[in-house]
Amino acid sequence: MIFSTSNIKKSFTTGEVSEEILKGVDLTLAEGEITALVGSSGSGKSTLLTIAAGLQTPSSGEIHFDGQDLGALSPEKTRQIRAESFGFVFQSSHLVPFLTAEEQLLLMLETAGSPLSTKQQRQEVEKILDEVGMGHRKSAYPASMSGGEKQRIAIARAIVHQPKILFADEPTASLDSTKSREVMELLQKLTKTLNIATLMVTHEEDLLTYADRVLTMKDGRLA
Ligand SMILES: Nc1ncnc2c1ncn2[C@@H]1O[C@H](COP(=O)(O)OP(=O)(O)OP(=O)(O)O)[C@@H](O)[C@H]1O
Fold it and tell me: Which residues form the ABC transporter domain (predicted)?
């Protein structure tokens, strides 16, 4: 397994009340597979995804990536692993308004510490933009893109540095059903062809056909 969590617990304290939101979660992700995470509102899906992605820390438990225990590494090393090997797509595309499609991806490569030359980076960006069907829009700014186009660029940006793991928190929530299916087809294609382990939180049951595995969160545990 490329990625796993072991006995992840997370409590939040509000005032004097402490509530355990995750009660010991074991999650595994496999390369080339989309794992969908479903469950009722407030069951802890986003909390689990953000902990798995290293965006917040668990109260206890371990996270293993590529044979390494992330909790045992220095913050600098985990930050480096996250930048190089993890990709993120959120509900809303979160594109930078003053950058073109091409520039959004180039910025990501720079942030991930890409070893490619400037020319190679441009070639790589062009290839990925073609892959997500946005090659013809490389000079477009977010304001001129439709919701589906923005999400395609967000996905392209999330995978341009060739991550091993892709975390997607309701990636189709802002799209109508046709566009949602198109975006899911794209995620499925990229997961398979690039051999990425994708974890996706979703509320939309009709999109579960795109998942290789469906995990249900209930009362802080995976059922
Ligand atoms: N930083 C925080 N401080 C306090 N409580 C929090 C915090 N983050 C999440 N929670 C609580 O943890 C619970 C689970 O939240 P989470 O967002 O993980 O649920 P979810 O399953 O993703 O829900 P939804 O489907 O509505 O997005 C909720 O009751 C939420 O209020």
Answer: 3-223
